[in-house]
Structures are given as structure tokens and as C-alpha cells.
């Protein structure tokens, strides 16, 4: 019998412990915000260098609670964090520097600019699918922007962040408490929302909605990075080998537990059968297991995902689809074979709800326009992709797709390009991480207006409001 690899969920910290940790983080933020941006960026880069030096230990901890292949951890978690650190440490001074603003001509004796001031304590409430990339990747720009972070990892994958917090503390480079981790389930997440000055939440649309409601009552800024249902639109003239390999990697990387992962493919009639055949061939080569050299596909991470994937496959079969793969290998360890669903239709759960597992449903369509219409029909709008050798057409179609991120002959790579905003539309979220915009969201924009000259004179629109004043105002308006 194989050993059970799914750890129990982390125990809940008390509300007092969360608020105490948040208070220490707020005190650390006060000291930290006084440092110049370049110094903060240099310290965060040094912390990252130390984590990177200890990457094998880190990978082992992440593997112990997810069973994801070590190579995949390096490629999909460590490497993107390296790119995020590079982008934000190189660009922070430009992004966070005061931005001069123009003023109307009647204020030409005044200076205007926008200053980006840190918010204080940023709560990061995160999911289990990328236990290092998501929390630490977001902590980097938040800290360089002058904030402390209070991370609440998923209760199913908390060890990775606990290890990271210990390692960060061990460097002695950051003020004590600047990077803090609290553990537990959704009730601890709610405490984090109360104790933070803003929250960046990454998780399901359902939880995102409830956090948005609570944040509304508390008037707390929140950014929501939620679920997706990536439609892959494959046109007749697509380059088949790349499209088929992309479908397999896009649907099955991280065992299909990727918010921007391919969740459905709409394939034009002429290429449909060849595409399905090429995907099947690629799938047969995949090596699956709980650990070991050369393994490409691990297990599901979150126990309820097992039932969900089974339910979606059963529903597809019951509604007439053919399922290739999808067999249970080891139920205790949440290990199932990747599944290709052909003859899929929009009524099936695999096509309309987020599956978040190793399932690729394929539907034949008569034309690109039908594919775009079907892609846009659901509630999600996170990532999408268009596959064709006609790049002009692809970019025109991409503009018609309702998604925060679109790839043209490209899949799953947006996260690794931190200059690009990352986020969704419709039920996939509010706001963006990454990019200049994503770093500035960790700040509030303070508008500064400075009266420069003449020092002692009142402005003409101040009191007294005598007769001449209306004529003066009209004259100002006429001149624009
Ligand atoms: P989830 O919503 O169940 O949980 C996410 C986090 O929120 C966990 O830490 C959980 O403990 C916490 N939480 C739960 N209820 C809460 C509440 N009421 N208040 C505060 N915190 C609460 O999501 P999950 O199952 O961990 O993650 C899978 C989902 O995450 C998928 O839908 C996936 O698409 C999405 N996701 C989105 C992105 C993105 O960038 N858009 C990235 C990764 C994952």
C-alpha cells in the first residue's frame, strides 16, 4: 500500500494571535516605509537571493504538501518569482516615483504631482495550487512599495509559507514582522481582512464574492484574482504540433490546477480530428506519479477536487461525451489519469464550470466566430488563447474575446511576464496584479498641489464674492 501523501489542514490561529501579528506587521511597516525605495528593493532582492540559495530545501517542503514534480516547482513557481523580483527591483523607482501632473492655466503658479504612499499592512489570502509563487510573488512588489505583508496561505499548503517566513526571518534583513504568516481556514482569512489595510485575494469566485461583501461593509480596498475557464480557440490553419503540445501542457501542467490553465478547446471542423489525435498521442507519453525523476504529472492537491473532477467526467459521459483517460490510479492520494473529453457540448459541466483538474474537453465548431461566441458565453473571463498561423486575424479575434489575458499561439505564460497586468474580467476578478498598475495598487495615490507664488496673495476665486467675481469666473471658463 502506498503511503498517504495528503497532509491534514493547518490548525486555526486564534483571532487574538492574528491581530497581534497584524499589529507587529503595522509597526514594522512604519519603520520600513521610511527607507528609500531603492534600499527597500535592494533588501528584498537580497532576501530573494537567500531563498534562491536554499531552493532545494524550499522545493522539498512544497513537494511534501503538493507532490508536484520538482522540475515543475522550479519552472512554474521559483523561476517566475525570480522574474518578478527582477522586474520590480529594476523598475520600482520609476513606478513609485512622484508623477508630475499638469494643471489648468489658471493654476500655472502651482505645482501638482501624485505621490504613491504605502497602504500599511497588505493581507494576502492565497490558494493551494501555487503555495510559493502566489504569496511570495505578490509580497515582493507589496514590500518594495513600502508595506508589510500578512500572508494567509491555504490551510492545505501552509508549510511552504511557514518555511519561507522562517527563512526570511533568518536573513535578518527585514524589520521583524514585515513578512508575516498566519495559518488556518476561511475564518482566519476573515480576521486577516479585518486586520489589514488592503487585501489581495486569490482563490475561488465564490469566496471572492463573500470577501467583496465583507470588504464593502468595512470599506477596505480589495483586489480579487478569481477562477477561470480558459477557452483555447484552434483554427483550421493552426500549427498543429505546437497547438497540440500547448493543449496538453496548458490543460495538465500542475495537474490541471492552474487558474489560467486550458479548461476547454473549441476546434474548427477541418482540423478537429487531427488535433484530437495529436493530443491523445501527447497524453500517452505523460509520466505520472507522486514523486521521482522524470514525473510530469502529480496528484490533485485539495481533497474536494477529487469529487469535483469525478463529477464533471461523469456528467460529460451521461450527456454523451467520450472520455479517454480519467481513471482513478490511487484515490487515497488523489491520483487520477489525465482525461480528454471529446464530443463536449456547452451543457456539460466540463464546458461551463471551472473543473480545476486534469481534464481537457474538446468541442468541434464550424467557424472562428462560433468559437468566440461560445468562449464569451460563460461567467468567467480570465485567460483565453487563439491558435492560427494568420497572426493578424488572431489578434483581431483576440480583441473580441472577453478575457483579461489573451495568448496568440501562447499559453500559461502571462505570469512570467511581470510587466503585463495579470487579472480577469466578469466573474474572474477585480483589479490587476503585476505591471506598473499592479505595484501601484499597493499604494494610495496622494495628490499634492503646491501653491508656489505669489506667496502672500489670495486666489481670485476665494471670498469676497462681490459682483465682479461672476464675470471673472465666466472669463476664466471662456478661456478654457
Ligand atoms: P478558496 O476560495 O477556497 O480559498 C482561497 C483562500 O481563501 C484560502 O486561503 C482559504 O482559506 C481562504 N478563505 C476561504 N473562505 C474565506 C473567507 N470567507 N474569507 C477569507 N478567506 C477565506 O480557493 P482555493 O480552492 O484555495 O483555490 C482554487 C481557486 O483559486 C480556483 O478557483 C482558481 O481558479 C483560483 N485561483 C485564481 C488565481 C488568479 O490569479 N486568478 C490564481 C490561482 C488560483
Description:
With about 475 residues, the protein is α/β, with parallel strands linked by helices. The protein is about 45% helix and about 20% strand. It is built from 16 helices and 18 strands. The chain has helices at about 15-30, 35-55, 55-65, 70-95, 135-145, 160-170, 185-195, 205-220, 240-250, 270-285, 305-320, 350, 370-375, 390-400, 435-440, 465-480, and strands at about 100, 110-120, 120-125, 150, 180, 200, 220-225, 230-235, 260-270, 320-325, 330, 335, 340, 360-365, 385, 405-410, 430, 445-450. The protein has a 7-stranded mixed β-sheet, sandwiched between helices. A 6-stranded mixed β-sheet has the order 5-4-3-6-7-17, with helices on both faces. It has a 3-stranded antiparallel β-sheet with strand order 1-2-18, with no helix packed on it. Helix 5 (about 135-145) links the parallel strand 3 and strand 4. Helix 1 runs parallel beside helix 7 and helix 2 (about 35-55) packs antiparallel against helix 4 (about 70-95). The protein is globular. The mean pLDDT is about 95. It binds nicotinamide-adenine-dinucleotide. Nicotinamide-adenine-dinucleotide (NAD) binds next to helix 7 and helix 8. Nicotinamide-adenine-dinucleotide (NAD) binds near residues 126, 202, 210 and 211.
Amino acid at each position: 500500500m502506498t503511503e498517504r501523501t495528503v497532509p491534514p489542514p493547518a490548525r486555526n490561529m486564534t483571532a487574538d494571535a492574528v491581530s497581534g501579528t497584524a499589529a507587529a506587521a503595522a509597526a514594522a511597516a512604519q519603520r520600513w516605509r521610511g527607507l528609500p525605495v531603492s534600499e527597500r528593493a535592494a533588501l528584498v532582492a537580497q532576501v530573494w537571493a537567500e531563498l534562491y540559495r536554499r531552493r532545494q530545501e524550499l522545493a522539498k517542503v512544497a513537494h511534501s504538501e503538493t507532490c508536484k514534480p520538482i522540475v515543475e516547482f522550479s519552472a512554474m513557481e521559483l523561476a517566475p518569482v525570480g522574474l518578478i523580483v527582477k522586474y520590480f527591483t529594476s523598475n520600482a523607482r520609476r513606478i513609485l516615483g512622484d508623477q508630475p501632473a499638469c494643471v489648468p492655466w489658471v493654476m500655472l503658479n502651482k505645482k501638482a504631482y501624485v505621490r504613491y504612499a504605502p497602504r500599511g499592512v497588505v493581507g494576502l489570502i492565497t490558494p493551494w495550487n501555487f503555495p510559493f509563487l502566489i504569496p511570495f510573488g505578490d509580497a515582493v512588489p507589496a514590500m518594495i512599495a513600502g508595506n508589510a505583508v500578512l500572508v494567509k496561505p491555504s490551510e492545505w499548503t501552509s508549510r511552504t509559507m511557514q518555511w519561507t517566513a522562517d527563512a526570511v526571518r533568518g536573513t535578518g534583513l527585514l524589520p521583524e514582522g514585515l513578512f508575516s504568516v498566519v495559518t488556518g481556514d476561511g475564518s482566519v482569512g476573515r480576521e486577516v481582512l479585518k486586520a489589514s489595510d488592503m487585501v489581495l485575494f486569490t482563490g475561488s469566485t465564490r469566496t471572492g464574492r463573500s470577501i467583496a461583501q465583507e470588504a464593502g461593509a468595512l470599506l477596505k480596498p480589495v483586489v480579487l484574482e478569481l477562477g477561470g475557464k480558459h477557452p483555447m480557440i484552434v483554427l483550421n490553419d493552426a500549427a498543429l504540433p505546437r497547438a497540440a503540445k500547448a493543449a496538453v501542457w496548458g490543460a495538465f501542467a500542475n495537474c490541471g490546477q492552474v487558474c489560467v490553465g486550458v479548461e476547454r478547446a473549441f476546434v474548427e471542423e477541418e482540423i478537429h480530428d487531427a488535433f484530437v489525435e495529436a493530443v491523445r498521442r501527447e497524453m500517452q507519453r505523460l509520466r505520472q506519479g507522486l514523486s521521482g525523476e522524470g514525473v510530469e504529472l502529480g496528484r490533485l492537491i485539495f481533497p474536494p477536487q477529487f469529487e469535483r473532477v469525478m463529477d464533471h467526467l461523469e456528467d460529460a459521459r451521461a450527456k454523451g461525451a467520450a472520455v479517454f483517460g480519467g481513471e482513478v490510479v490511487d484515490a487515497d492520494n488523489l491520483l487520477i489519469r489525465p482525461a480528454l473529453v471529446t464530443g463536449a457540448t456547452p451543457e456539460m459541466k466540463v464546458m461551463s464550470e471551472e473543473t480545476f483538474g486534469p481534464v481537457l474537453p474538446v468541442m468541434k465548431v464550424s467557424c472562428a466566430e462560433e468559437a468566440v461566441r461560445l468562449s464569451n458565453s460563460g461567467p468567467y473571463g480570465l485567460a483565453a488563447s487563439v491558435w492560427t498561423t494568420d497572426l493578424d486575424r488572431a489578434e483581431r479575434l483576440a480583441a473580441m474575446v472577453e478575457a483579461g489575458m489573451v495568448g496568440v499561439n501562447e499559453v500559461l505564460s502571462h505570469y512570467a511576464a511581470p510587466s503585463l497586468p495579470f487579472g480577469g474580467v466578469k466573474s474572474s476578478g477585480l483589479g490587476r496584479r503585476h505591471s506598473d498598475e499592479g505595484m501601484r495598487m499597493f499604494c494610495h495615490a496622494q495628490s499634492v498641489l503646491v501653491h508656489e507664488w505669489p506667496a502672500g496673495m489670495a486666489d481670485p476665486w476665494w471670498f469676497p464674492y462681490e459682483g465682479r467675481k461672476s464675470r471673472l469666473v465666466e472669463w476664466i471658463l471662456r478661456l478654457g
